[in-house]
């Protein structure tokens, strides 16, 4: 049976964060279930996060981004972890996606017909986003802004299916015990993903 490859991407720029705890809890749960995953904290990569010329003139990928592209292509399940800042993803994560999810990597574009085709099909994903806005407020007032962008506009557009979502909130002023309850949710998500990819 083919081994399923899991990639965990952390888009938080600070290692001392609850997002790092989430990543480690997810990775440990998978390891306990017998599945190893590759961990990619974007804060450790060296790259220009600005797509300076759009798609008109695509800059050569830095070595860290070339490696990231290979990891994405080899993976069958990718977990995206990020905080919700100003109801969007951090600039680090957005810049990574801008630079990596390029034509002929994430999608193809027919200049004559305008037809777009996803190139990353056959993969599943999970988004784990943290925030301080309560779930009802985020959903009803802000329309799940960053999650909609990442889930629909980026991952599903590129062929990922299914894409599961965990919005972990609120984080601010939570006790250690309350944060540990959130981590239990992450461990449960890892178990769900293990069943999905097994």
UniProtKB/TrEMBL annotation:
The UniProt record lists the keyword Oxidoreductase: yes
InterPro entries (UniProt xref): Flavodoxin_fold, Flavoprotein-like_sf, NAD(P)H_dehydrogenase_qn
A Pfam short name: Flavodoxin_2
SUPFAM superfamilies cross-referenced by the UniProt entry: Flavoproteins (SSF52218)
Cellular compartments per GO CC: cytosol
Keyword vocabulary terms for this entry: Oxidoreductase
GO molecular function term, any single one: NAD(P)H dehydrogenase (quinone) activity
Domain of life: Bacteria
Flavodoxin-like fold domain mapped to chain residues: 4-186
Entry similarity comment: Belongs to the NAD(P)H dehydrogenase (quinone) family.
Name recorded for this polypeptide: Flavodoxin-like fold domain-containing protein
Taxonomic source organism: Chryseobacterium piperi
Organismal lineage: Bacteria, Pseudomonadati, Bacteroidota, Flavobacteriia, Flavobacteriales
């Amino acid at each position: 049976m083919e081994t399923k490859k899991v990639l965990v991407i952390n888009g938080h720029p600070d290692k001392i964060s609850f997002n790092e705890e989430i990543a480690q809890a997810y990775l440990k749960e998978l390891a306990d279930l017998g599945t190893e995953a590759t961990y990619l904290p974007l804060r450790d990569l060296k790259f220009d996060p600005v797509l300076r010329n759009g798609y008109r003139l695509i800059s050569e990928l830095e070595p860290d981004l070339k490696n990231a592209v290979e990891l994405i292509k080899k993976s069958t399940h990718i977990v995206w972890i990020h905080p919700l800042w100003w109801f969007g993803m951090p600039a680090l994560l957005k810049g990574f996606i801008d630079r990596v999810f390029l034509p002929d990597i994430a999608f193809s574009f027919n200049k004559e017909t305008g037809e777009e085709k996803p190139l990353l099909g056959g993969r599943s994903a999970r988004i784990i986003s943290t925030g301080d806005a309560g779930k009802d407020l985020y959903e009803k007032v802000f329309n799940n802004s960053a999650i909609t962008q990442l889930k629909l506009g980026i991952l599903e557009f590129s062929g990922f299916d299914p894409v599961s979502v965990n919005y972990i909130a609120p984080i601010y002023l939570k006790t250690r015990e309350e944060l540990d309850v959130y981590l239990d949710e992450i461990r449960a998500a890892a178990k769900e993903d293990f069943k999905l990819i097994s």
